[in-house]
Amino acid sequence: MKTLLTLSTVALMAASAVQAQDIVRNRTPGSDFPIAQSVEIPPGASVLYVSGQVPPVVNEDAEQGSREAYGDTETQTVGVLERIDAALQAAGYTMDDVVKMQVFLVGDPEMDGAMDFAGFMNGYTQFFGVERGNLPARSAMQVASLAVPAWLVEIEVMAAKMPE
Fold first, then answer.
1. Where are the alpha helices (DSSP H) in 20-72?
2. CATH number of the domain enclosing 149
3. Is residue 16 part of a domain?
4. Exposed/middle/buried for 153, CB within 10 Å: 0-12, 13-18, 19+?
5. Do 158 and 48 contact (CB within 8 A), yes or no?
6. pLDDT tens, position by position, 56-80
7. Which of 21, 100, 120, 123 could bridge to 158 as Cys pair (CB 3.0-4.6 Å)?
8. Which stretches of the chain are DSSP H helices?
9. What is the pLDDT of residues 17-40, one digit of tens each?
C-alpha cells in the first residue's frame, strides 16, 4: 500500500512537472536567421490554427484587384501579419504565441516572376525575430498564384500557449 501511495505521488508530481513545462523554441545552431529550427509544445498547451490570411487593400484609389491596390510583397506581408495579429488577439493569443507559420509567395511580375523573399523578410522581421524572442518554425514557398491575381502573399499560422 505504501509503495502504491508513493508511486501515485511520484506520478502526480511528474504530471505536474510536464504541465509546468514551457513551449521551447529550438534555434538553428550557429544561425541568427529569424526562425526556429523546431518548436516543442508540451502537453496541456492550448493550440490555435489560423487560416490563411491575405492582404488588405492599401490604396482605395487604385483599380480594384490591381497590384497597386494591395502593394508590393513587403506591404502585403505587413498587412497579412496585421490581420493575423487581429485574429490571434480575438482568440486571446498574441504574435508571441505563434509557433508555426506557412508562407505562400507568388512570383512578383516586377521581378521577372521570382518571389520577393527580401521584401517578405522586411515585413516579417517587423513582427518576428531573434531580438523579439518569438521564432516560429516556418516554411516559405513560391506558388503559381493565389485566389486574386494581385495577391503576392498568404500566410497561415499555428499558435500555442500554456494555461495561465
1. 67-70
2. 3.30.1330.40
3. no
4. buried
5. yes
6. 999 999 999 999 999 999 999 999 9
7. 100
8. 2-19, 67-70, 73-90, 117-124
9. 444 589 999 999 999 999 999 999
